[in-house]
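Continuing the series of single-chain predictions for the mutant panel. This is the parent chain; the variants come on the following pages.
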Amino acid sequence: MFKKILIANRGEIALRVIRTCKEMGIKTVAVYSTADKDSLPVRFADEAVCIGPALSSKSYLSIPNIIAAAEITNADAIHPGYGFLSENEKFSKVCQESGIKFIGATPEQIAGMGDKANAKATMIKAGVPCIPGSEGLLKDVAEAKKIAKTIKYPVILKATAGGGGKGMRIVWKEDEIQHAWDSAKQEAGAAFGNDGIYMEKYIEEPHHIEIQIAGDQYGNACHLSERDCSIQRRHQKLVEETPSPFMTDELRERMGQAAIKACKAVNYEGVGTIEFLVDKNRDFYFMEMNTRIQVEHTITEEVINYDLVKEQIKIAAGEKISGNNYYPQMHAIQCRINAEDPYNDFRPSPGTITTYHCPGGLGVRIDTHVYSGYTIPSNYDSMISKLIVVAQSREEAILKMRRALDEYVIEGVKTTIPFHQKLMEDENFKKGEFTTKFMETFKF
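Parent structure:
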């Protein structure tokens, strides 16, 4: 087992990893930018190293600075959390070359799954259902028009190196395709340094359902059931839950087996997710693989009563997984509490938290890095915390979430708490009748 792990991240996920390391008897190193010098991960880690200024490119995305911090503190492993360098092939490789274990996927696995066009080709070969579309990257608009005519409109253009909805354009008819092509390529090039575009059939009113998977260094793989991530805005998830209210036992079994196939197709090492779109007929299609821990891993932990970060660390240390598939016995919901103004188009609201009181009670969990007096920097993601509840049924979980949101007091900045309170009262949400299009008609 590792003696010391450096956490190459910030915020709640950095603190989350530190907690598990401490429970495993492993020493921790926090790295931080000058904007995060007063953060809780810095306070609670055994050691802390400043790796640069507030700008991410000079701190949390600086591979030389992070590797130097690991070397001067004698860390024998690096946990990347999510975002930043967690799915960076070069970072995984540099760790390997430096004799530091990267707690995550290998460079080859990241390269294979990080490029969405390559990932899709791999899944087709493995027999995992995929959305009809181009076999690889599109050469030009003429090829895009030809394929769109074959698979029929609507179609969606996607950046091969994309994420967070960038470089994506829905096209409803042929005379829209040139403009969509130009804007998608421009946005993708600016965001990822790669303007490669591929095409898929656009699935209308889908459910976004992902399967949590784990694989070890010996070729074993298992799934830990599903999470429903359909409540999202501009491709950014707002609420996640497990089990999905749209799921059936038969569909869960089929999707779970497909996820294991996907995992074994790349000899996956670590924990990750296979993301699917599921249409109204409950036909499902591979969307992408995330080769890292997910923001919403918490709800899976609550329904199977197991620490997924601990599983990551054990797999990286060479231990075998149990090989057992897990199925939820409880119901869990997570609300992402962001420093955003829901009354003003979710505009970011950085600033100093003047009052902070978090809810408690049986089945309520808060993952956060903030406190009263903490200043939320404008340089990073606006997440304040993740509020998670677990109960015997979905109905009880919604009631518990409503109660927890009522108790949650954050003053000094605008937050998304009022949005979540209204969502928990919405009749369609309570009945489980929602798709990824839910937020387009939700009145707030």
